[in-house]
C-alpha cells in the first residue's frame, strides 16, 4: 500500500454546505511503508504541525502560543509542572477538548496538512486515526475479548475480528498472559495488565497516532517498565505522544521533549500554560537553550 500525497487545505471543497471530508479522503494511507531508519540527514515526516495554538476555558486562556511539529514514528514527551497545560494540549490532537462545553481552541492543528479544527472535519473520524490512553486504566466491564473488539465493531471493522483482537493483544505484549481467558472479565487483570489492555484497545482500530496521558502514574515500577518497553516496541508502527510528570521517564523513552511552564497573572492568580522549549530529548536534558528548562530538569523548581 502506498501513501497518497495529502492535499493542500485549499484543495478541499469550500462550499458552506459541503459534507465533512473524511480523513481517509484528505490524508491518505497512514500505514504507508516507513523510510529506512537512521539514514543520514533524513528528517522524519511531520504528522502534526501546531501553529499558534491557544486554548480557552470560557474567558480564561489556559494555554497560549504553542508552536511545534510532531514527527512520525517518534515518541514525543510533554513535561512541566502541574497546571502548565500539558494534558490540555494533548487533548487538542484528538479533539477531546470538544467534549468540554466551555473549551475553545484557536490556531491550527494540521494533521498531514489538514486542519483538524476545520468545520468540515468530523471529530469522530479524527479519533479513529488518533487513539487515546488515559491516566488510570479504564477497561470496560466486559470480557477481555470484547474490550479489544469494541472499537473495531463500532468502526465497522468486523472482518477477521479474532485476528484483530489477537494482533492488538500481541502488539501490547499481553497475548501470552490472557490468551486462555479471553472470555473472562477484564476487571480481573492487574493494574499494569489493564493499562496494556487499554493500549491494545486503542490500537485495535489501527490508528496512526497514540496519545498517552500519564499512562504510568497509577502503576508500580515493574508495570511502568513494561509500558515503557512496549512504547519502544510499537513506535515503529505508531507515532506516540506522552504526557508525563516523570522526567526520568521522558529521558528514557522519548525522542523529542516539549517543556511547558506556567505564567501567573498577578491580578487574578490565573495560570496560563506556555511552551518554553522543544527539542531532541538528548539536548533538552543535557544542554537546554532556556534557563527555565534547565532549572526544571535539574530539579531547581517544579
Question: Can you walk me through this structure?
Answer:
With 302 residues, the chain is α/β, with parallel strands linked by helices. It has a domain at 45-139 and 209-297: 3-Layer(aba) Sandwich (Rossmann fold), CATH 3.40.50. 30% of the residues lie in helices and 25% in strands. It has helices at residues 23-27, 86-92, 123-129, 144-154, 161-171, 175-178, 191-203, 221-234, 247-253, 281-286, 291-297; strands at 46-57, 60-71, 75-79, 103-111, 114-115, 130-133, 209-213, 239-243, 256-265, 270-280. It has a 10-stranded mixed β-sheet with strand order 5-4-1-2-10-9-3-8-7-6, with helices on both faces. Strand 9 (256-265) and strand 10 (270-280) form a beta hairpin. Helix 4 packs across helix 5 (161-171) and helix 4 (144-154) runs parallel beside helix 7. Mean pLDDT is 87; it is low at 1-18 and 32-38.
Amino acid at each position: 500500500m502506498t501513501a497518497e500525497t495529502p492535499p493542500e487545505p485549499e484543495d478541499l471543497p469550500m462550499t458552506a454546505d459541503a459534507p465533512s471530508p473524511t480523513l481517509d479522503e484528505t490524508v491518505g494511507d497512514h500505514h504507508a511503508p516507513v523510510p529506512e531508519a537512521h539514514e543520514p540527514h533524513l528528517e522524519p515526516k511531520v504528522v502534526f504541525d501546531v501553529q499558534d495554538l491557544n486554548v480557552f476555558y470560557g474567558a480564561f486562556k489556559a494555554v497560549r502560543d504553542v508552536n511545534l511539529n510532531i514527527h512520525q514514528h517518534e515518541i514525543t514527551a510533554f513535561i512541566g509542572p502541574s497546571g502548565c497545560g500539558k494534558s490540555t494540549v494533548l487533548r487538542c490532537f484528538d479533539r477531546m477538548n470538544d467534549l468540554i462545553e466551555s473549551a475553545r481552541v484557536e490556531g491550527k492543528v494540521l494533521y498531514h496538512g489538514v486542519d483538524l479544527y476545520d468545520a468540515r472535519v468530523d471529530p469522530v473520524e479524527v479519533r479513529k486515526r488518533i487513539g487515546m490512553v488515559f491516566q488510570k486504566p479504564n477497561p470496560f466491564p466486559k470480557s477481555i475479548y470484547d474490550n479489544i473488539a469494541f472499537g473495531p465493531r463500532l468502526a465497522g471493522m468486523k472482518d477477521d475480528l479474532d485476528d484483530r483482537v489477537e494482533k492488538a493483544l500481541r502488539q501490547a505484549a499481553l497475548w501470552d498472559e490472557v490468551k486462555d481467558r479471553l472470555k473472562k472479565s477484564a476487571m480481573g487483570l492487574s493494574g499494569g495488565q489493564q493499562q496494556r489492555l487499554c493500549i491494545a484497545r486503542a490500537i485495535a482500530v489501527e490508528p496512526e497516532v497514540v496519545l498517552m496521558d500519564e499512562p504510568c502514574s497509577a502503576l508500580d515500577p515493574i508495570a511502568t517498565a513494561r509500558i515503557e518497553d512496549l512504547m519502544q516496541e510499537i513506535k515503529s508502527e505508531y507515532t506516540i505522544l506522552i504526557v508525563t510528570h516523570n522526567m526520568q521517564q521522558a529521558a528514557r523513552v522519548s525522542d523529542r521533549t516539549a517543556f511547558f511552564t506556567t505564567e501567573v497573572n498577578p491580578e487574578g492568580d490565573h495560570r496560563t500554560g506556555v511552551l518554553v522549549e522543544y527539542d531532541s530529548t538528548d539536548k533538552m536534558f543535557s544542554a537546554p537553550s532556556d534557563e527555565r528548562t534547565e532549572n526544571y530538569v535539574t530539579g531547581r523548581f517544579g
